[in-house]
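Sequence and structure are no longer studied apart. To make this concrete, we show below a single chain and its fold as tokens.
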Amino acid sequence: MEDLVLISIKTKYANQIFDGTKIYEYRRKSIGEKNCNKKIFVYSSEKEKTIVGYIIVEKILEGSVDYILEVTNNKNNSEIINYFSGCDKGYALKISKAVKYEKPLSLEEIKKHDKKFVVPQFYRYIKQNEYIYNKLKI
């Protein structure tokens, strides 16, 4: 059995992913090609503080920020340009599927069972011995 991947995404962007209006998730660091075409669980930070569902990343685009913005048709998006400020290189995760849970898994519930649980700043692996592993593996 392999470890699961948990990625942290701001609530606003997580909502856009799950309502289908956002098909690229932008990152300053790659999550690694090995995580393509498998479930990546989404922790909605800020307001929700819950694991709201999972995404499947079809491919990871990598290159200069200008290249990433060009390929994803976001050359004039000031939010994304600001996000990449100071970066020479960027990544765009092409999302092929997004599944939102009917009953999200809250941070509060996770912490009741696993006081050592750490929310990822970017992403992290969930080990088999962690409480949420079996909750998510369904």
